[in-house]
């Protein structure tokens, strides 16, 4: 196929047969993170653009799914887990152990290739931040956010998310 000779290929530029051949020839790994944690991280990175987390959430909800920034757009609409059969789904908070398993499965040395991850160490910070920022939101905002991320919450095991029903 011609896509094998192209440095970067977007699936949308290929026909169905080429897409199936391409996806079938790779190990597909999807990295996911609790949508509420993604919102918090985006808010913290863009401090100053919104006066409060609550107003930032209003901007997110006002953008709608189709006009949403990649930073907070629902993962299901970005990575199509119902169409692409991912071989591995790696959750933020378990990067070291899950990537170690992937490297081991690939026959690679785990210790020499993995950097030091801090995702498991910062989970307690996100728990605290989630509690604080979730308390800033109105009941209506909480309900709308849960609806906005309903497919992510159904597709991935975010059972401890503040947005889970």
From TrEMBL:
Main location: Golgi
UniProt keyword Transmembrane helix, yes or no: yes
Compartment(s) of residence: Golgi apparatus membrane
Membrane topology: Single-pass type II membrane protein
Keyword Glycoprotein in record: yes
A family per Pfam: Sulfotransfer_2
One term of GO molecular function: sulfotransferase activity
EC number: 2.8.2.-
Keywords, sorted A to Z: Carbohydrate metabolism, Glycoprotein, Golgi apparatus, Membrane, Signal-anchor, Transferase, Transmembrane, Transmembrane helix
GO biological process: carbohydrate biosynthetic process; dermatan sulfate proteoglycan metabolic process
InterPro entries: Carb_sulfotrans_8-10 (IPR018011), Sulfotransferase (IPR005331)
GO CC annotations, alphabetized: Golgi membrane
Superkingdom of the source species: Eukaryota
Family per record: Belongs to the sulfotransferase 2 family.
Descriptive protein name: Carbohydrate sulfotransferase
